[in-house]
User: Fold these one by one.
Assistant:
Number 1:
Amino acid sequence: MIFLALLLGLLLFVLGLAVVMLRRSAILLFLGIELMLNAANLTFVAFSSANGALDGQIAVIFTIAIASAEVGVGLAIFIVLFRRFKTQSVDDLRILRW
Amino acid sequence: MNPGILSTELVLMAGGFLLLLLQAFAPRLKPLFAPAAILTFLGALAALTLKPSGLHLWGTWEVNGLTRFFTVFFLLGGALAVFFGAYVLRRDGMERGEHYALLLWGTVGMLLMVSTRHLLLIFVGLELLSVVLYLLVATYRRTEVAVEAALKYFLLGSFASAVTLFGMAWYFGMAGHLMLAPPPPPLPKLMGMAYVLLCAGFAFKMALVPFHAWAPDVYQGSPSSVTPWLATLPKMAALVVLVRILQTLPPPLFLGILAAAAVVTMFTGNLLAFVQQDTKRMLAWSGVAHMGYILIGLAAATPEATKSVFVYAVAYALTTLTAFAVLGALTRGEHEPHFISDLAGAGFRHPVPALVLTLCMASLAGIPPLVGFAGKFYLFYAAVEAGRTGLAVLGILNTILSLYFYIRVIYTLYMKPAPVEPLPDTTGGPYRVGLGLAGLLIVFLGLAPAPLFEAASRAFDAMVTYYVR
């Protein structure tokens, strides 16, 4: 059972990684990052139940709170970006290079 | 529980909330915001004396020589950054209470990172610091470069945080707890993976190759009110966490990786700094290279080398902070690029900022008798003592390489003829006094580095008492 949960966590992590690598829309990129965070949460919970230590479940609650703070900041930045550049694709950001 | 153990953090938090409320309800007090923020930093420094030494909160909260060393460093650095930032913000009409509140809270994040061995608390500190940094970069929200820099920083930064969190989850699974401690001898295979993932987020904050891609963009794009702080102190907080993580591992496991990372980071930073036209961007690549020198110290892994890393960190932070502060003054405006060639003729027109910038460049290049030289000398000496002569030689070679682009700035300042429209000095008298004092500090710590060495030595001794090899 723990093995399946860990495998699912790993899969989610890789999926998030793939989204970050392949997509070009800022919002989708962030979605991929959220997937990776939740993969970590799942892994925490799985290990927590396997080890019989509660630390992992408490860590998840902290992570969820932190992730939502990050979402707030991220969406604010996305809005400012859309106002300035009229785009949400990271490929259109070309002022800063090398 | 004795509330004194959190005194510094509580003062900083309270100061931040106060400034936020003042911005909302008494915006007319705006000229007092910056002094209030500096007073909060100094008050937090005074509150540090209330902290009783030892391990608190079920062993998660440390108060010892290490945390004191970095607390003092972060608080003084924060006060300096507030001082310089305030003048830049006033020049641009962007001064708001939030800027200072964010700086204060970001400092709390850094203090959390250096004061604990509990991974969850470290992560909370890291995220508190990161969120503050994303917002600070985006404060000039009408400036296109700033928005672009903020977006890039946010995406890459939260990516690195997610990787670190995944590493923490696996560390928790393998070790059975979240406290950073040496794992029992037969190291599980997956523990290595956990450690690599764990280090990623901190390597990102320090801008080590291959996690450095954000640094030049963010340093160039972020407003000059923020860059001096952003480029220096967060790197130091991440460095402390990285040292703590490495301390839990038996050395032979990671020394090869660290040495390779040191060489790659130094060469990448220095070679790319060569070709830059923008001063801020050049300093960003130079910052990457300096983190490479620091990795030499970590790869040497002796007590002396780790102490020299702390000294080097202070030298780097002080010098780079001051250099970015000078660039905040000598500029055509926050929307304009900071070309190195624009500095032509500024040397005689604006003697104080130019002289301080010269000192900074010389210190970064490691020219005696400045603080950068003291740091480099101690670092390379410790590396040779530890039997890492090859690394030290490569480091010295890199130092020679880097002379080119540091001296180029000095050359442009004093030797190039001034253009028709020379750069203005946009920030006024008190700013120049502050720059002068920071320059004096760079010289003074270079001439008399002994107190710094002793403090770093005490910090290290406090760190190792918890790890019996």
Note: Chain A has a mean pLDDT of 90.
Number 2:
Amino acid sequence: MTATSTLPTTAPVKAGTPGRPGLGATIRWELRKLRAQHRTKAVLLGALLGPVPIALVIHAQGRPPKDTLFGRYATTNGFALSLLILGFAAQWVLPLLIAVVAGDIFSSEDTHGTWKTVLTRSASRAQLFTAKTVTAVGFAVLTLLVLSASTIASSVLVGGHQALTGLGGQLIAPSTALKLVGASWLTTIPPTIGFACLAILLSVWSRSSAVGIAAPVVIGMVMQLVGAMGGVEALRPFLLTTPYEAWHGLLSAPRFTGPLVEGLLTTGAWAAVTLAVSFALLRRRDITGG
Amino acid sequence: MTTQLAVDAVGVTKAFGQVRAVDDVTIQVAPGEVYGVLGPNGAGKTTFLRMLFGLIRPDAGTIRVFDKSWDSDGVGVLDGVAGFIESPGFYPYLTGRQNLEGLALLDGGARPGLVEEVLEVVDLTDRADRKVGGYSYGMRQRLGVAASLLREPRLLVLDEPANGLDPAGIRDMRALVKRLAASGLTVLLSSHNMDEVEEICDNVTIMNRGGVAYHGSITDLRAMAPDPGHLLDTNDNAGARALAADHPGIEVERAEDGLTVVGQEAADGLTVVGQEAAVAAYVADVVRSGIVLRVFTPTRTPLEALFFMLTDQEVAA
């Protein structure tokens, strides 16, 4: 006799053993949930369209923001304009865009009371943790890529693609400038991943989406403040915000990549520690509520 | 040769701070059995079920499900097990169908047509494409059962499945659980409602303040139960009470104010406790004596009375 064969079903439901989901299936589930949420679409749309009015507004300024990196040329050169926006985005825009998903992906299960739903299926806590982390980090990188492409394209369209004056005063040919500007944006991938991991930790620890989303932005601002203060030079390499400035070396003469390597190490350490603590918290947690 | 138990929980203990939510509880459920875990709110039923599902780690004791344990088999313990704890949680921004399809992914996928099948079982086919955020409580409960059936379980664990439902919802949920149980599925059901458990279960553990107050069959429980109680109200309660002297098998007392009976409160009257035949003979005598009966209604079933006694709760009659 089958387990539910007397039920009014079109075909009997047979008792069996559910299979084990692969990591791919668990990630697909996370992606499905992400796709169904309005804020995910809003973040991607914001990353895509947001740079256009910003580029237009800055370009239309009568007096360029000379005290900002590449600000002097921002109204006359599209490459400089996109680098100015990069410097601005790294201050709080990127941590915020990242945290909208990474800071919510764990705590939303608490909000909806769904931990008990997903943890009573055949996926382990380790699988769910990995899937959520991969999804959050993947979304952060995707958002960054969309924002980069949109910023560079709109800046160049608005400001033109003349030769760029580098940080050492050297003139960089447009084709090289385009590559260097693209590479500069790409150098923010490691700290972006680092901030995503920090947001994940805050989401797991606090079980609150508000904390998971807002706290990384605040922490990022505090780190920038600390980094800008005198007398704490020894601390700067360990701050998660410092790698956001590593691209400066690409636009200098001669070029230098030391900060990029240091940034990778710093980000790697932040990611490893925050993810390890996050997983330990989740693995040991008693699910007494949602 | 020993039979493999569906659930073999021995000496399970869990404390939250100074509070022992579950204290040395042993529950064993045989395959095919419909087992009830009964107790008032806060008795430790849900904490026990959470430990069974691995949501909470026990401080002491062992839990084996179909001979697998969390320590040695990890999430493999849940092979063939499904159910929900308290009210089932779903993603409100997804439809009922999308929720089920997603949960099926976490089970390694469902065979074609299974999602439709389980939606039909719980009578949600017509509403499957609506977002769960708009579902009523009862619909979510039924979706919870559907999500459980999606795992094609051998053991179904339901924590207060009728909790929060309106009378029609309770009736439908009980009918559904009965149908599932009748099909041979092992069912572990928690409830604070004796009627629900009595109607469906073979064996029962009654929990109180984290411990076990009773463990055994419903048949044995019935044998322990006191006589049924009734509320009697007449135009001459003193006269009716005097007649009780001729009926040694029953006890007649003045009802306390505010005595709750089904659907109403009686401020006055008599409580009549005794075997049904003796009570019937007494009431017949009352009527024959010319006393007018205003109210004659059961106030508790024998098992309810026993449940209240075992769990130290105030007995209504």
Note: The two ends of chain B are 48 Å apart (CA to CA).
Number 3:
Amino acid sequence: MSRKILIAAMAGVLAAGAAQAGDVRIACYSDGNECEATEVLAARFMAQNSDIKIIIDKQPFKSIQENLPVQLAAGQGPDIARTTDFGPVAKYMLDLTPYLKDPKYWEASFGPVLNWMRKDSSDHGIYGLMTQLTISAPLVNKTLFDQAGVPVPKAGATWDDWAAAVKKVSVATKLNAGMAWDRSGARFAGPSISMGAKYFAADGSPAVVDDGFKTAASKYVAWSQDGTVDRDVWVAAGGGYRDAFAEFANGKIAMYLSGSWQLTRLEKQIGDGFEWVVASAPCGVGGCTGMPGGAGFVAFKNTKNPKDVAKFLDFLADEKVYAEWMVMTNNVPAHTALQKQSLPYKLSPAGNAAITAFGANAALLTPLAYKLQGDPMSRPIFGAVADRISAVMAGQMTLDQAYARITADVADAVAATKK
Amino acid sequence: MVKLVAALYAALMNLPERPMKWAQSQLSGGRLGWVFVGPNLAIFAIFTFLPIAFDLHYALTGGTQLLPGDRPYVGAENFASLLDCTDHFDPNSCRRDLFWHGIWNTLAFVGLQVGLMLFFSLLTAIVLNGRIIGRSFFRAAFFYPVLLSPVVVALIWKWILQREGLLNAAMEGVGATPVNWLLDGNWAFFWSVFVSIWAHMGFYTLILLAGLQSIPAEINEASQMDATRPFRHFTRITLPLLMPNVLVVLVLGLIRAVQIFDEVYVLTGGGPGSATTFVVQYIYKTGFADQVRQYGLAAAASLLLASVLLVLTLIQMKGQGGGKQRG
Amino acid sequence: MANLLTARRGRLRWDWTDWAAHLYLVLGTLVMFGPVLWLGLSSVKSESGLQAYPPTILPYEQARIDVPERGTLKLFHVTQGEHAGQDLAEVRRLGLQSQLVDPANPGTLIRLPIEARTPVMRLHAAWENFTDLFSQFSFARIVWNSVFITVVATVLTLLVNSMAAFALSKYKFSGRDQVFLLMLATLMIPPTIVLVPNYLIASQLGLTNSPWGVIWPAVATPTGVFLLRQYMLTLPDELLEAARMDHASEWRIYWRIILPLSSPALAVLAIFSVMWRWNEFLWPMVVLSRSESFTLPLALNSFQGELTTQWHFLLAMTVLTLLPVTAIFVVLQRHIAQGIASAGVK
């Protein structure tokens, strides 16, 4: 008797894991409410298409970043994943062109960012949909500037102007540091391109350390030593990303180089605690650029339902739906037509002003910034830059040693991918 | 309830009775032992030995491909690049500087952490072995952190130690200047040692306490009568009797310390710079977290680490001599 | 010092060593347990309360007040000027100036420089950190997954490890010592370094996205075999001989005699196994990628995005995960101590 019950119980347990064919699985991670917003839209999509079932698996970012390539290599993994790092999964991505309703609409609407998901310049496939466009830009604590009696530098001001201004504010209002940049090679790329860094040789291969880069790096390190820049944000971590939002929200810095993804937090956690504004990217010989970025939903070859995958992405890419999605998540659209409209965000006046300012910054992005962001080597470059410059700031190596290490790290990554 | 569990246990355990009896009739002497170790060994084979064989293959191949069949053979290149230094004592002169930072940091960490942990667990065990009001409460309080996962341990302490954390607020509260605990290489190293002791010492304290309690009371009483030199009594009588327990603490502590990774990784990220980067973190970063994953390098580094550990264990076993009967 | 280093049962009077010992223990308890309490208190702070510096011990948030026609406004205490001492509600803030109203007389705007007012704080536990969690996940499913994996893995661990320990302690066969050494050697392998090959193997065996993918690799623990073997070595062989005389089968001897006698060691292993499986993160993260197969630590970490982390949820979730383990520990702590005492070292 007891034996039968036991066997029945075991069988029940074993059967519980099986999944249905015909589902579209999306591996999603959230920086705010992106997955939840997509769930709302997916519910509507499923009401219209009762034969398709969209399942959104909300995961830690780490899980997607580290495991997705392993899963795909083993022939497993989701049908769609939200990721920012397209390089390692590039060879598993599905070209959606034959399945899309109107590939031309995609080209026209998402042209500049479709390249990011492509393998090289000869590749014309459409591999996915950017879930937003992020733009890095300076966030300014205007209240601190006002207290110090220093005017906020206007559009067109150089990085040196900004450094001098925030230094004045920090002295007048007794701050430890005038500004902070997120600990990220991508953030660093904005100022360095503005100061003349080229990042690539004439043949298109990575060549990170040049005169422009050296100018930016040596200025940044010098600023971190005289209290213009908050050194701690970069030194605190041995590797990886660290933001400086807490420093900004607590009024410890006058200017914070971060980006558009902070909007929800700015609204929620600062609100009217002080007056915060988004400034225009500071300038240099290379322009006045920040960095574009963002995550995308990419589709994979091992899906059993490519048509359904494309149908759902077509649904999300629709101008109206996409606009709604952006409003729900407080994001800047990657859709070129929508970028020119003002969307009905449910934000405070400060938030609305900020999103307009981010849009204005998007227009300043240089082609090099787009190219760097989309290059397969961008992540190794960003990682090496952040880690090695942090080591200089921590006093563990000299700038010249760091330059040599950055060059070697990037060359090493290039060599490994060529094998 | 107890009866139900007992009945369930009996019903379950009766299931393999017949096949086991058959096996017993087929195998003579101690060879039935193989049937009993079988399941354990099989799982080890699949999930430990086979992966190590994979690692060996990875170590001898290069590139970023994940499937073993896709990887080009490169011979000892991975090992050579790891060992390529002009001066092995100066990580900055090495081709893989982080690996060597990891090695030297790990060595320093192991020495400091194991020594201090032994000292504090011994001290706590001795105190707890005395005449203490509320002993089981204190014993529980010291053990509790052992239950926490490494990630939680690190998150708790990060929350306390960060620049805008509890400790600095408390220091400002009493008028001291706040310190950037995780920004100064030496402090960050100190805190990684501290936090890992915090998280594990409860377990070792219990082992040592058990040893202390098994020392017959007469021995202590006898020596208390005549001896006026308690320290001598401790080193001459208590410590030798406690030696087997101390050894277990040392061996387990050493193995854990060499493998130190997640607590410190979440706490400091290996920084500032590379001040708290340890070998396992290098392996994780190279093979798993980096954008360009060099599995070959990671596997070669792990094989180097494993062989060092194996040598250490062998030395320890040799040194223990009669340890075989006792384990 | 004299008495600290030797046992001293039987003395009646307290001397300074007793005071020192208790002082050490009280301070130690603060260090060991205080951080966990801090975590608990932080988990009921609001999102902005968590970011605040200096941090408050108890969860505070700025008081709000309903003002007719103006909605819910933040309350400030005025420190300077003619309104000093009053509590006013802020309508809006413009740069360095604040526009406030008296809640009793909401018609007139009062303009003050911002440094003339400080926020009125009140105690407020943000239970919504917890309640919101339940709407974020199919919580019952996740708890069930965690419980299932923990219980099944622990039962299997006890069975498989005790069988191996029985063989290694009570049988003599050639290759036995080598097997034991081999198992001990696996203690040296940091789990991180076999992650990738293990995934490839699990995927070949069809174990991905199934609780069994977490359970099977965890079942054979070197620590468990070691612990149980050491304990079984102390059980007298005569017991086995007597049973063999009665024609009991070897399997029966194992489960009828050896296992019940090893219960202190089994209890210790059970506790450790429960703790390991309940807290395990890295391997489940690799092998489970569908939300319906998630365990608690995975759900907890899904609040970590690339650029931002939702700390208020993460902390609440951490506390929820800790509760069951703490409860088990409080109930069983005496047994754990005794179990380690009797099984840990022999």
Note: The longest strand of chain C covers residues 105-113.
Number 4:
Amino acid sequence: MSAGQLPRWVDYGLIPLLNLAAAFLVSGLVVVLIGENPLDAVKVLLWGSLGYGEGFGFTLFFATNFIFTGLAVAVAFHAGLFNIGGEGQAYLGGLGVAFACLALDQYVPWWVTLPFAILGSALMGAAWAFIPAWLQAKRGSHVVITTIMFNFIAASLMVYLLNNVMKKAGSMQSETRTFEEGGRLPFLNDIFPGFGFDYAPVNLSLFVAFLACILVWLLIWRTKLGFEIRSFGANPTAAVYAGINPVRIIIVTMLISGGLAGMMAINEIMGSQHRLLIDYVAGYGFVGIAVALMGRSHPVGIVLAAILFGMLYQGGAELSFEMPAITRDMIVVIQGLVILFAGALEYLFRPALIRLFSAGRSPAAQAA
Amino acid sequence: MNKPITTQELETTAQPAIELRKINKRFGPVHANKDIDLLVKKGSIHGIIGENGAGKSTLMSILYGFYTADEGDILVDGKKVAIPDSKTAISLGIGMVHQHFMLVDNFSVLENVVLGAEGGANLSVGLASARAELKRLEDEYELKVDPDALIEELPVGLQQRVEILKALFRGAEILILDEPTGVLTPAEADHLFKILEVLKNQGKTVLLITHKLREIMAITDTVSVMRRGEMVATRQTSETSMSELAELMVGRSVLLNVDKTPATPTNKVLEISNLNVTDSRGVRVVKDVSFNVRAGEIVGIAGVSGNGQSELLETIAGIRHADTGTLWIDGEEIDLAKNPLDPAQMRQRSLGHVPEDRHRMGLVTKFAEYENSILGYHNDPIYSRGLLLDIAKIKELASGEIEKYDIRPPNPLLKTANFSGGNQQKIVLAREIERDPTVLLVGQPTRGVDIGAIEFIHKRIVELRDAGKGILLVSVELDEIRSLADRILVMFDGKIVGERTADADEGELGLLMAGVEGETK
């Protein structure tokens, strides 16, 4: 009865690769249909995302966003919660970063601003997750519904703030003033000139993202809170039996999740844009869901999946430039296919693999 | 087909409406139906009685095509049939009234009756002919119900009548009712029985699934008793008694041998007074319960499952909320209604709890064994070093428990789902007993556990008693209660209906458990 056990390498290695292969196979067919050579397309995509320093820099820049939003979704997953409000939480996170930078950038160097920016982004992201969390914990309103609604509220709120409250004087743009040196993170090109990242916006936030990965790993697998989160996610009844308070776990987990999503703004706002502007989240929050699914909610998997999606973003841009027949929209189709196979169809190959692997074992072992 | 029919007191001339031969059904390791033979006479009301989990519903689901049997034959009207789905069952004239109604609330009675048998794309034609047919059925079987009433506006008794009409509309000759009175008031139940009488007189065959003895005695012609997946007996209702059926239901297998000396109880370690608990459906499930457990004794709560024992245990453990009630643990008074403690706080007061359902409650089966070995005790500082859990130490302690409790395979890293039932139970037991609790709540300690592990588990529980701890044992296995407990409380319908010593007469306990004495009082 207990559905087939798969070896870890199949679960964590083979299945994601098979999903990816299927996505690329279908994408290849699409490319063939519009009259281009799919192998050439792959070549352009790989070269554009990994082949030279600046391209790789862009890949890493996008990956940084995906690590934050992927971690956010993953933490909630461990508690059995589906936080699809990363988009709005990341958007509000930008507000926290902007507060810190606008207040401090003229007086202190960036490394003094950074801790405040991290704190601000995490606090604002967490705050945006709090109301859905509270409604879920206390009223049973499903977080899927409430978090997605909060994405729309966030978008409207930010438009209002950026047009009516925070707009730079005498400008038509819906954005704040540009931060001074004290509100800008160093680009990796300046720290490591040897890599030739050139104008790629990849910046110090990449390391903040790696640090977040380590902290999330410790939280989930090495702390009491993580133990409680996983217990609640895997078996809520057993968690209650164990004296774990569901209300507390739901709220705390969502706050952490929202905080991580909010931290994405450090990369975009303090690391690259150097000003708060509208619509900068641009779907990174949603892609985080696919990243978390593909990365099996484990930080290592999330980093790998984030880099993959970074490649798709960067290589895809390159592809639409090199092969005009493959428009920007085609790239979105390919990304969509990867999300479809890695996320929604995650279990497509699973039953077949389980049959394959359990057939290999002796019937006696199965009966046991 | 002409095989000799079993030595039943049936007229050999009448073809049985249903005959089951050697039906077997397994769900993984659970053998839900073992070699079931059953003969149901045409035009009779045949009861099937047994405790929750005895396999009644599984058997009926096989008959109705929800499950297919692993082995065995089904004969309807003497013909061997295969019933792969409920559509086939309906075409064979088998209708089923489920415990939970399968009705669309915001449809009318007529629409519900027609649903799935509309007969063509033009609904109004189908509805018109259905209305006429419904009228005929109502007259023939005295099943009055307004065809245009909405289901949600009907009382439960009438909704059930719609279910019966649905089955008759589809031409059912054999009607299966699964726990039909569970949701009915006594008056509604009496009315249902009248309807069943009419159906019988019109030549229909009725199969009534229940765990209520009173209903069996009141309405059936023949009764079959199931216990732990087996059909243990079939009787003519007129020739049996409630006490015989109660005994058959609960079972009278060999007493398990438990080595134990007479108890030497000392002071009260757990006391419950005036406990009332209401479940999520708003039904009062624990009624005015008061009792105590002393150090050095095992108090057993006997009862047919579903009579409030689970809720009682969960309330004491802090999982459920009480309406009223006071609890004393080791002298400390706790108001269960106004200031209840949560399970973690109860553990801090040295209350261990082996829950009745280890899969649902006692374990996170996705976790490795060592992780489950601290579930509920994970806040204990001995498992932490600074902010982090001390994984090495937890594994080491888990390995110690594995050795002491002979948990196999002896691998703390193995996923808990991959241990057998007995070993999983030992994991829970090790976790709760090794914390040296003052009071241990134990629910169904040996359900789904093999004989070897049963002995081991019983021994551990007795050892804990001899170490001067108070143990409250809930089990639906009367044998287990009788062999382990020093005092026996019998629970029926949420109340404690009697207290007996461990050497109490089994038949007497059986009657108490069936609520017979309770009802006459």
Note: Chain B has a mean pLDDT of 87.
